[in-house]
Every structure is written in C-alpha cells, then in structure tokens.
Amino acid sequence: MKLNEIADNAGARKIRKRVGRGLGSGLGKTAGRGGKGQTARKGGAKAGFEGGQMPLQRRLPKVGFTSRKSGTTDEVRLHELGRLEAGVIDLEALQKANIVSRNVTQVKVIASGAIDKPVTLKGILVTRGARAAIEAAGGSIEE
C-alpha cells in the first residue's frame, strides 16, 4: 500500500450542491427553485398557506379536549391495593409505593381485579363496586 493509493470508500464524502453557479453546473439560473413566484423567493410559502383559500387545518373541525384535572387525578385498581404492605392506605402510602405519581392530589379506587386481604382506606375516593369488594374482604373506608 502506498500513500497515494489510500482513498475513502465510494460515497463516504458527499460533495455539497453549489447552487446558482452558472448554467453549466446544472443548478444555475433558478438554482433548483423552479420558475418565478412565491416559492422561488427566500422565506416564501408559509406552512399551511393555500394562496388565500381557507387552509385545511382551519377547514376541519376541532376534535376533543385535554382535561385540566388529568394531571392531578389518578385511578388505582383493587389488585394494586393488595400488593401494599401498609395497613392504612392513604395518598402518601400510594406515592411511596410508586403506584401514583408525586403530582397527584386525588385518587379513586376502581373495581378492577380482586383483593383478598383487609385494608383500611383513608381520604381516598372509592367506586361502589370497589367499596363492596373491600368490605367483603374485611376492610374499611374512612372518608
């Protein structure tokens, strides 16, 4: 091997386009921007602009909404309560066990799964089905 034989692999160094450098370059005159008009200009063609016609994003109806309560409320299932070792379960116990996030201020227990050990809930909302399941397991709910 000689120093003059060393070369990069084919395609390793891509040569950049030099637009607007004469007709012989293939990208002279309009510099690859086509004809005249708004799209040929620098900074032209705003996103979504359709030449004065009502843009698509304004023609279509608004859909859905984001609840402001969604970041501060959460649901807990019955089988998740069964995994906790604490006798009295409150918001702080659920946060320590990483069942709900730290920014949650209100929790509701829903009847999903089963619970077999008695637990005491303090300051936590409960659905009717979940209340029946907790009381059937020998637990209690303190409002």
Which consecutive residue ranges, at least 5 long each, have pLDDT under 50?
none
What string, H for helix and E for strand, traces the elements in order?
Answer: HEHEHEEEHE
Estimate the mean pLDDT confidence: 91
Structural class category: alpha/beta
CATH architecture verdict of the domain at 73-142: Ribosomal Protein L15, Chain: K, domain 2
Descriptive report:
It contains 4 helices and 6 strands; from the N terminus they run H-E-H-E-H-E-E-E-H-E. The chain has 143 residues and is of the alpha/beta class. It has a domain of 70 residues: Ribosomal Protein L15, Chain: K, domain 2. A 3-stranded parallel sheet has the order 1-3-5. A 3-stranded parallel sheet has the order 2-4-6. The N and C termini lie far apart (84 Å).
In short:
A three-stranded parallel sheet has the order 1-3-5. A three-stranded parallel sheet has the order 2-4-6. With 143 residues, the protein is an alpha/beta fold.
Question: Keyphrases for this structure?
Answer:
single chain, 143 residues, alpha/beta, Ribosomal Protein L15, Chain: K, domain 2, three-stranded parallel β-sheet, 17% helix
